[in-house]
Structures are given as structure tokens and as C-alpha cells.
Amino acid sequence: MSKPFFTLVLLLVLAVSRPVQSRTIEGQPYEEQMQLAGSTLLLNGVGLRQVAWFKGYAAGLYLTRKATTTDQALSAPGPKRLQIRMLVDVDTIEFSKSFNRGIRRNTPAAQQAALGERMQAFDQIILGVGKVKTNDAIDIDFLPGRGVVLSVNGKPRGAPVPGDDLYAALLRIFLGDKPADPELKQGLLGAPL
What we know:
With 193 residues, the protein is of the alpha+beta class. The chain has helices at 3-17, 70-75, 92-106, 109-129, 164-175, 182-188, and strands at residues 22-25, 28-31, 33-36, 39-51, 54-63, 80-86, 90-91, 131-132, 137-143, 147-152, 155-161. It has a single domain, classed as Chalcone isomerase, CATH 3.50.70.10.
């Protein structure tokens, strides 16, 4: 066998056997795994928030173990990340309204009352961002012992807001019984695109 032929065969074998490094939706890449707070998180699924033909954002859910149901995602141990990648420019006032509406629709009233002050603190962090632009990456992280951390393009915004119950309420906006977008929910829970 000639050396160039052998090299070509070796490169083809390596290319075929190499695991997928990322998944792309609407041109937005999501790594198959990432590190957060000393843990390896796996990409559970990706989806698209869309109304008719209008595409607002792509999203990816990262957990320490795969989940196919809302309960499994909420009870997954360790840190979690919901990453939103913007497909349009949006004023964060709209984000704040959407988050609050989603919590009202997917969190029992008694739990909403317990979230009150912390949700206001989270709203203030969101509103402090001002505007998010096309291709911005918004990470909503849960860090055990610290709480909910919002980052835009890798830059943390505000102080962590305590409470795994707050993070669960935020995830239910996307994964609850009345999600923002049922197809997005299915995608985040690992349904094929």
C-alpha cells in the first residue's frame, strides 16, 4: 500500500469514528458536552422557539444525566444550564414579561408567592441587560449552593439568585405542562429534530 493511500484511509477512518462534537439548529452550535461548576454536563436536547414563521431563538438544555421527561430534568443532580441563542434582537422587557407569564402558567400559586422577591431580583438582572441581539448567547445556570446565574455571551450579570425552586420554576417555563412552545419542550427533552 502506498503511503498517500494509507494516509487517506487512516483519515477517513478517523473522520467516521470521531464522535459528533456539536449539534446545530438554525446555524447555532451547541456542544455535546461542557463543563460547569466542576461537573460535565451533557447536551440533553435542542429546540427552536417559533411562532408561525417567526423564529425567536434556539435553546439547548444541559444536564449531568440525560432526561426524557420534565420530572427527570428537574430532579437531575448538580448544575444545569439552559442556553438561549438569539435569532432576532429583543428588548429584555419582553424577556421579563415572558418569564413572569411562564411562571404564572406553570408554577402553583403557593410556590409563586415563595418565589416573589427572588423573581423580582432575577427580573432586575434581566432588565439590566437592556437588549439582546441576534447571535447573543444567554445562559441561565443553576449552580448548587449558589443559585441561579444569568450570563450574556459568557459574562455573568448580577449576583446569583438563591434557590433550586427558582431554577425549577424557570425550567418549567420551557418544560412544564403549559410550555412557551410545545415543540421546543420536546426538543429540549431529546426528541429528534
